[in-house]
């Protein structure tokens, strides 16, 4: 297990396992963003109101604007299982645009110190809401919602201003 450290701009993205599509499809997130320009944003929970109505849809709607800026990978991450993330992506029309990463055990989220205790609301510890622009494996811009759940600085239109 990687040591917990608050991720900051200028840091290299940790290379920990997440999955996509189904639980057995594990890969290293750092390798996905090792070369080129990428965007990673996290949500507290799939199908939850703010995430489902505003956060993910904004990235789907602005997909072409990210591509125009040279972004090659856009991924959404949640402390959830791969089946739920896959179904949510299909529900939102994210297929072929936004990769849906499951941090099922929360290891990546904990390693970058972005965990948010939502046991009373969602049943377990989840991820804070954030968005980051990554270039060649290094975090160039990191936007974290001040309360961990808000919908202001981590939206697609806000991150686009920093790329």
From TrEMBL:
<protein>
    <recommendedName>
        <fullName>Peroxiredoxin-5</fullName>
        <ecNumber>1.11.1.24</ecNumber>
    </recommendedName>
</protein>
<dbReference type="InterPro" id="IPR036249">
    <property type="entry name" value="Thioredoxin-like_sf"/>
</dbReference>
<dbReference type="Pfam" id="PF08534">
    <property type="entry name" value="Redoxin"/>
</dbReference>
<dbReference type="GO" id="GO:0008379">
    <property type="term" value="F:thioredoxin peroxidase activity"/>
</dbReference>
<dbReference type="InterPro" id="IPR037944">
    <property type="entry name" value="PRX5-like"/>
</dbReference>
<comment type="function">
    <text>Thiol-specific peroxidase that catalyzes the reduction of hydrogen peroxide and organic hydroperoxides to water and alcohols, respectively. Plays a role in cell protection against oxidative stress by detoxifying peroxides and as sensor of hydrogen peroxide-mediated signaling events.</text>
</comment>
<dbReference type="GO" id="GO:0005777">
    <property type="term" value="C:peroxisome"/>
</dbReference>
<dbReference type="GO" id="GO:0045454">
    <property type="term" value="P:cell redox homeostasis"/>
</dbReference>
<feature type="domain" description="Thioredoxin">
    <location>
        <begin position="7"/>
        <end position="163"/>
    </location>
</feature>
<feature type="active site" description="Cysteine sulfenic acid (-SOH) intermediate">
    <location>
        <position position="51"/>
    </location>
</feature>
<dbReference type="GO" id="GO:0034599">
    <property type="term" value="P:cellular response to oxidative stress"/>
</dbReference>
<keyword id="KW-0049">Antioxidant</keyword>
<dbReference type="GO" id="GO:0005739">
    <property type="term" value="C:mitochondrion"/>
</dbReference>
<keyword id="KW-0560">Oxidoreductase</keyword>
<keyword id="KW-0676">Redox-active center</keyword>
<comment type="similarity">
    <text>Belongs to the peroxiredoxin family. Prx5 subfamily.</text>
</comment>
<dbReference type="GO" id="GO:0042744">
    <property type="term" value="P:hydrogen peroxide catabolic process"/>
</dbReference>
<keyword id="KW-0575">Peroxidase</keyword>
<dbReference type="InterPro" id="IPR013740">
    <property type="entry name" value="Redoxin"/>
</dbReference>
<dbReference type="InterPro" id="IPR013766">
    <property type="entry name" value="Thioredoxin_domain"/>
</dbReference>
């Amino acid at each position: 297990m990687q040591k917990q450290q608050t991720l900051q701009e200028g840091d290299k993205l940790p290379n920990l396992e997440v999955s996509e599509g189904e639980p057995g499809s594990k890969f290293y997130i750092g390798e996905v963003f090792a070369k080129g320009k990428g965007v990673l944003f996290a949500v507290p929970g799939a199908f939850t109101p703010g995430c489902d109505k505003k956060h993910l849809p904004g990235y789907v709607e602005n997909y072409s604007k990210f591509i125009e800026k040279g972004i090659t990978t856009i991924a959404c991450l949640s402390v959830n299982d791969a089946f739920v993330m896959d179904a949510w992506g299909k529900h939102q029309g994210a297929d072929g645009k936004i990769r849906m990463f499951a941090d099922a055990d929360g290891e990546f989220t904990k390693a970058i110190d972005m965990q948010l205790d939502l046991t009373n609301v969602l049943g377990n510890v989840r991820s804070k809401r954030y968005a980051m622009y990554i270039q060649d494996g290094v975090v160039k811009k990191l936007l974290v919602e001040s309360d961990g759940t808000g919908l202001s600085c981590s939206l697609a239109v806000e991150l686009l201003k920093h790329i």
